[in-house]
Design goal:
Strand order of the largest sheet: 1-3-2
Structural class: mainly alpha
Length: 253
Amino acid sequence: MSYTVGRVAGFAGVTVRTLHHYDDIGLLTPSGRSHAGHRRYNDADLDRLQQILFYRELGFPLDEVAVLLDDPDADPRAHLRRQHELLTARIEKLRKMAAAVENAMEARTMGINLTPEEKFEVFGDKDPEQYAEEAEERWGGTEAYAESQRRAAAYTKEDWKRVQAEVDDWQERYTALIAAGGQPAGEAAMDLAEEHRRHIGKWYFEVPYEMHRCFGEMYVADERFKAYYDSMRPGLAEHLRDAILANAERHTS
């Protein structure tokens, strides 16, 4: 089988111009040409393209990718092992970042500029600055934390009221779902998990599905988050974690 440059671009989610560039620099030279001189790619070319995109996603410059792929002592399994190690390290970094921002976000500590009376009006008996010092000391260097601070610093009391109203509404609907016997992998639960992800993106920082998975695991592993969610309804933390995982699978598989 051989494939046109247009079909390969469609398979891989890249542009035709990108494939032309890879050919021009010798990174991915198609194995054949049509009678009219057009590029034709075979399965081996697609395998190499997959490796290129793996390394590119991990931040490697294209010249380094070429060196890695053309190493005569490396076989395909060696590349997969290396990529697995790099991805595992990246996931761990994202997990720590997720924990960082979530600790701050749930405590409502980021950039809140309200009087004590306004804080009570918005958050009731919750102390939005309970974990502020800890969060800043441990996680203040992360990009997501900085982004959430930047956004939240501009919010007014009315903005915070809207944030809290969305949270309260979501909590009410999620507890009702569990009470009705809704399963984590059900469409309703996955939709609420997606709403949870988008709420964070709307008010604080963008949350890729990989990071959202980390959030879900943290809700069960961290006793403070588990207690927070289970206070709404026993078992909600694990239910939400499973719904988040199912929703991420739905959108990324």
